[in-house]
Amino acid sequence: MTGPSLSNLVRELEELVRLEAYGITASLEGSRLIVTALKEGALNTYLYTEEELIRLNREPISLIAEPPWDASRVIVGRDVAKGREQHALYYVPLDSPGDERELAPGLGPGRVLSLVDQGERVYVTRVFDDGIWVVEATPGSSWRRVGPLPGMGWLADAHRGWGAVQVFTPEGRIRLMLMDLAAGVLSDVAAPGGSVMAVRFSPQGELVYALEKTDGVELRRAAPGEGDLGLLGLPGKDLDEYRPMGVNYMRFDERGRLIVVAKREGASQVFLDGWRVPGPRGVYSNAHPYGDGELVASYSSLRAPPQVVVLGGEGHRVLLSSRLPPALEEALGEPEFHRVESADARRVPVIVLPSRRARRQGPAVVLVHGGPFSEDDDSWSVFAAALALLGFHVVMPNYRGSTGYGEEWRNLILGDVCGMELEDIVSAARWARSTGLAAYTVVMGYSYGGFATMCALTRKPEEFAAGVAGASVVDWEEMYELSDPAFRSFIDLLFAGDRSKWRERSPINYVDNLSRPLCIIHPQNDTRTPLKPLLRFMDRALEKGKTFEAYIAPDMGHAVNTVEDIEKILLPAALFLARIRERLGA
Fold this sequence. Notes:
Elements: H1 6-17, E1 21-28, E2 32-39, E3 42-49, E4 52-55, E5 63-64, E6 73-79, E7 87-93, E8 101-102, E9 112-117, E10 122-128, E11 131-138, E12 142-148, E13 153-159, E14 162-168, E15 174-180, E16 185-188, E17 195-201, E18 207-213, E19 216-223, E20 227-231, H2 238-242, E21 246-252, E22 258-264, E23 267-272, E24 275-277, E25 283-290, E26 294-301, E27 304-312, E28 315-320, H3 326-331, E29 336-341, E30 347-353, E31 362-368, H4 382-389, E32 393-397, H5 407-411, H6 420-434, E33 438-446, H7 448-459, E34 467-470, H8 476-482, H9 485-494, E35 518-523, H10 531-543, E36 549-553, H11 563-584
Parallel strand pairs: 31-32, 31-33, 33-34, 34-35, 35-36
Antiparallel strand pairs: 1-2, 2-3, 3-4, 5-6, 6-7, 7-8, 9-10, 10-11, 11-12, 13-14, 14-15, 15-16, 17-18, 18-19, 19-20, 21-22, 22-23, 23-24, 25-26, 26-27, 27-28, 29-30, 30-32
Helix pairs in contact: 1-4, 1-11
């Protein structure tokens, strides 16, 4: 099998990136749905009713709040600073599509970490110069600062004057706190050891939260003024038997039943009051009540683009989806789950997407996810699909620091950035070669994955034939100086407060080791991983006589929200990789 000719490459990639992607945001009274979709070339939100999609926002959005069941309008956010993540917030009446109105006059744009819509009030977790604050807004009227958060955190839910807040501790745990939304005062919920991965208020005002531990997740109850109340009991036992390692989403329906999307080993399932709701294998990001006893969910897999499906009754049916072009459908193999031994004998979870355009022992890309508190799983990835189209097997390691495999695995990265997680990535590459899957391996990633790619090519260059680094960090010291309070807190968390390691773990100090072809792709207006340090990296590489190519994506920030954004990242990478494959063969 061979990859496409260069003359066909751009055409096939254009078809891929222009696939429409659908997700459900909320279900409303009368079986109406709020749908968010990468459609019309950008991220937009729609009212879906009687098989009709009505676009609500006027200009493309980057944020949307989940509205309550009886909502008459939706809250959306838009980056108004060419990718610098300065979000302006608006509300749009459902009966007046396109009529965007300023949510909080006088608040002004800023980095928004969460939006919680409670109908009469909207709560915004927002970054100011003096830290991260919860803001209360009355749509179209007024706003006020409620209270500051102690470090990197966000308001996750609100009910009857109380807010559920999740905050990272210096040890890497995610702590559950309650905020009095009138006074702005925070208090601890004395949860047992573990990290709170999802939290919701019940209709009665009780807190239900998913507590991540080393060996799995348990659901617990808490209440304002009472603290933790112990394990949550559900009528169905399917969820307990599933033994989840993570929770993607939780919410209560209008009858008080708990909907949970739980995950393990790269896939997820939907549960209603503890009973499993059957559906296709893949990943569900949320689920909502719909119609007469059914659920509607956001679903995708590595072989199925994001779509809206209805679960329940006699099985499932697709409500909104895109059809894969035949060439792409033929290129995608069946996803595989493996565990690969790392340098210290720990087992690294690895997802593999084989390419039917590559022979066994063909070219492979080790695709490194960002975060690092994120996960590669059996969900749609336009980058993985593009690599399969190019004729590369795709190897996706869930290195230490990844979510979905317990609290201990996630926290092993803290204080050891560009350390053992790099060994995990290298071990995945060696495994691919030793099993006969790959003749050679290329490393590629975006954001933290771009940083990991830079680490790999400057610390372990012998392991990879080439690398593609997107939106990468190259100098932690300079990045800290250029960051806002939210990302400064994140960097302190990642290094466990040990700033002495910033210089040692920065790729800019290892340019001498660069010996493999490198493609650098970076957004011009990125405020999470700023461009300025990367320009110094390239200047140093030039001084050392290193060979690389670079593409600066104009008028784009870190987040990828439009088809044009995807093209700016993907096309230079694809052309670079096509040349690598042509040179190395296999």
